[in-house]
Amino acid sequence: MLFNNFEFLASYGTFAQLPDTSFPEVVFAGRSNVGKSSLLNKIMQRKSLAHTSSTPGKTATINFYGWENIRFVDLPGYGYAKVPKGEKRRWGELMEGYFSSGRNIRLVILLIDMRHKPTADDLNMIKFLKEGGFRYIIVLTKSDKLNKTRYNSAKEAIKQELAQFGDMTMIPFSSVSGEGTQGVKKEIENAL
């Protein structure tokens, strides 16, 4: 698959704006500032196709990237406390509408910051994906920020925390070193 051929297509801020499609979609989800844009840029072999932000909660739209008949879908980050209640409600409606609209979702890539325990929002998202029957993998971001000892203990702690959900694929990822990039690409290709 030619990952570097993906281009930005469009952003949508409300569920009503989302166009109908039967194209297969790979969805990127996770809390605010977890590294979704960095992962997308690494996978698509671009420096700034997906815009990164140092301000959590900044991405308030669903962003679509495409190549031929395949779509990558970057969902707004969840769990940022400083977002106004009305904005949180709009995000919730957008996310719920997206997942319940019968789209051709082939894979959800859920990003969790490897430096921290999964949040209640992360656990709720996994539960939602599992109950909804969505195929998903976990990508553990920011792995380069941990030394070897901390890396191994963090990976094991997250594995234990998520054991309640059964077996799942977990891939440590670093946008700096590129660790995990090929594994994520392989999972995407297998899902499509």
Write a structural description.
By secondary structure, this protein is an alpha/beta fold. It has one domain: 3-Layer(aba) Sandwich (Rossmann fold). 32% of the residues lie in helices and 21% in strands. It contains five helices and seven strands. The protein has a seven-stranded mixed sheet with strand order 1-3-4-2-5-6-7, sandwiched between helices. Strand 6, helix 4 and strand 7 form a beta-alpha-beta unit. The longest helix is centred in the middle third of the chain and has 15 residues. It is globular, with a radius of gyration of 16 Å. The relative contact order is 0.18.
Q: Say which CATH homologous superfamily is assigned.
A: P-loop containing nucleotide triphosphate hydrolases
SSE string? EEHEEHEHEHEH
Globular, elongated, flat, extended or rod-shaped: what is the shape?
globular
Mean pLDDT: 87
The CATH class name reads Alpha Beta
CATH topology: Rossmann fold
Ranges where pLDDT stays below 50 over 5 or more residues in a row are none
Strand content: 15-25%
Order of strands across the widest beta sheet?
A: 1-3-4-2-5-6-7
* Second rung of CATH, namely the architecture: 3-Layer(aba) Sandwich
Give the N-to-C terminal Cα separation.
10 Å
Number of domains: 1
Describe the main β-sheet briefly.
7 strands, mixed
Query: Cα-atom Rg, whole angstroms?
Result: 16 Å
Number of helices in the DSSP assignment? 5
Q: Based on DSSP secondary structure assignment, what is the total number of beta strands?
A: 7
Approximate helicity band: 25-40%
